[in-house]
């Protein structure tokens, strides 16, 4: 029987980052005894955890690639459950491709080894839709072949395979959740590692021109970050060891439409710069959420509603930073 969230000591690796910090908040809301965070602050920000820390969460500014420190924290604080959100941004793989790959594999490898030695009970690992590459068929389901096009995605795919083999070999309680393209408050907006939504908001709010790379017809299956966190915690008790579940809103949206909607929300009427297509860019992500819907009461807000909430957050954040 898998340990309950309520009353558990929980570790979130990468918990000061975008998805991880929202997960920390909700773990506290659901009654975790204590939430601990390990984050090397590569993209994580302490301000993302301001509310969580005020409610007792503990942040270790450490690197989960450091096996001795990771093991010591898990042992010293009696960790029951680990949620692994530790990674480095997709765009980083164009800057340091080897490190981007290694981080994804090393952290999962460390956690699985510590788990194999009986130091904690359950591992929920956050994969990425990037492992699939461009859709071979649509909509993409959990049987879609891995076809990584970047070292970031390659590292994620390797980490997924490592987890499955550890489950097979050592019967550890570990499973995979695979969110598609998350967006929402707290996503990094600083170049060169920002995603399209935060960087477009930042450029317009800073008086710069937004950009589209290539034709702009590349599409993604965007999902609001709080919908992802809600789904993950509902799935926690239900996903069998070694199994994986895609989490998507099941609606593909082009980059052109994303930028157009942000421009409209921010009343931007200027020029949109056209730049060359980026190498290894995925053309299409369009997922089915049939499996997740069969397992839980899965609800998502519309992209229009989520984008409005997100843009409002960046507007408020810029005001705070400039005041």
In percent, how helical is the residue content?
Answer: 25-40%
> Which structural category do the helix and sheet elements fall into?
alpha/beta
Number of domains: 2
CATH superfamily of the largest domain: NAD(P)-binding Rossmann-like Domain
Based on Cα principal axes, name the global outline: globular
Computed over alpha carbons, the radius of gyration is 19 Å
Q: What is the CATH class name of the largest domain? A: Alpha Beta
Mean pLDDT score, rounded? Answer: 96
Strand content: 15-25%
SSE succession: EHEHEHEHEHEEHEEHEEHEHH
User: How large is the count of helical segments?
Assistant: 10
Enumerate the strands of the largest sheet in spatial order, edge to edge or round the barrel.
3-2-1-4-5-6-10
Give the second-level CATH assignment, the architecture of the largest domain: 3-Layer(aba) Sandwich
User: What's the story with the biggest beta sheet?
Assistant: 7 strands, parallel
Tag the structure with descriptive keywords.
Rossmann fold, 323 residues, 10 helices, single chain, 39% helix, UDP-galactose 4-epimerase, domain 1, 3-stranded mixed sheet, alpha/beta, 12 strands
């Amino acid at each position: 029987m898998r340990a309950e969230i309520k009353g558990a000591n929980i570790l979130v690796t990468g918990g000061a980052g975008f998805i991880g910090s929202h997960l920390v908040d909700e773990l506290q809301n659901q009654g975790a005894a204590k939430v601990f965070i390990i984050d090397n602050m590569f993209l994580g920000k302490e301000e993302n955890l301001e509310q969580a820390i005020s409610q007792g969460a503990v942040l270790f500014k450490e690197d989960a690639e450091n096996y001795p420190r990771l093991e010591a924290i898990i042992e010293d604080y009696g960790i029951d459950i680990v949620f692994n959100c530790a990674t480095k941004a997709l765009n980083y793989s164009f800057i340091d491709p080897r490190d981007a790959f290694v981080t994804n594999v090393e952290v999962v490898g460390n956690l699985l080894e510590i788990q194999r030695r009986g130091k904690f009970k359950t591992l929920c690992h956050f994969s990425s839709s990037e492992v699939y590459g461009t859709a071979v068929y649509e909509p993409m389901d959990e049987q879609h072949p891995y076809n990584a096009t970047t070292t970031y995605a390659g590292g994620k795919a390797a980490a997924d395979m490592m987890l499955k083999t550890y489950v097979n070999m050592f019967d550890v309680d570990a499973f995979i959740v695979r969110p598609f393209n998350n967006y929402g408050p707290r996503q990094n907006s600083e170049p060169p590692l920002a995603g399209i939504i935060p960087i477009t908001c930042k450029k317009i709010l800073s008086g710069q021109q937004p950009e589209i790379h290539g034709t702009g017809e590349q599409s993604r299956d965007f999902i609001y970050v709080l919908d992802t966190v809600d789904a993950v915690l509902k799935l926690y008790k239900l996903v069998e060891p070694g199994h994986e579940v895609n989490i998507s809103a099941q609606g593909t949206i082009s980059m052109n439409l994303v930028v157009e909607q942000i421009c409209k929300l921010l009343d931007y009427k200027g020029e949109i710069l056209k730049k060359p297509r980026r190498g290894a860019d995925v053309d299409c992500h369009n997922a089915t959420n049939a499996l997740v819907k069969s397992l839980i009461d899965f609800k998502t807000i519309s992209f229009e509603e989520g984008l409005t909430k997100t843009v409002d957050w960046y507007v408020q954040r810029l005001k705070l930073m400039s005041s």
